[in-house]
């Protein structure tokens, strides 16, 4: 059989899409919304609590150190 173009493109596309079920739109529950809000506030609080520690750590890493100081015994 030789190839021949389909006479009606719209009809062909409708036939192809006939068995495709559309995905239902996802609606988060009230619990999920509340949980997301609590998680966001917990992450914000953790960021505020850890900010001074991270700042001191970064400042400590920026200070020049003597590589031999790690091997120097401290009395």
What does this structure look like?
The protein has 75 residues and is mainly alpha-helical. Helices cover 56% and strands 0% of the residues. The longest helix has 33 residues, at 30-62.
Helix/strand layout:
Blueprint (H helix, E strand, L loop, with lengths): L8 H9 L12 H33 L13
Concise overview:
This protein has 75 residues and is mainly α. It has helices at residues 9-17, 30-62. 56% of the residues lie in helices and 0% in strands.
Report the sheet with the most strands, covering strand number, pairing sense and barrel closure: none
Percent of residues in helical segments?
55-70%
Mean pLDDT over the full residue set: 84
Oligomer: single chain
Number of helices: 2
Structural class: mainly alpha
Instruction: Round the Cα radius of gyration to an integer and report it.
Output: 32 Å
Low-confidence stretches: none
Entry keywords:
75 residues, mainly alpha, 2 helices, 56% helix
């Amino acid at each position: 059989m030789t190839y021949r173009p389909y006479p009606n493109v719209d009809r062909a596309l409708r036939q192809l899409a006939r068995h495709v079920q559309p995905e239902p739109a996802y609606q988060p529950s009230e619990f999920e919304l509340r949980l997301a809000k609590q998680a966001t506030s917990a992450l914000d609080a953790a960021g505020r609590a850890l900010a001074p520690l991270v700042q001191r750590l970064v400042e400590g890493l920026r200070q020049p150190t003597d590589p031999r100081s790690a091997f120097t015994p401290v009395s």
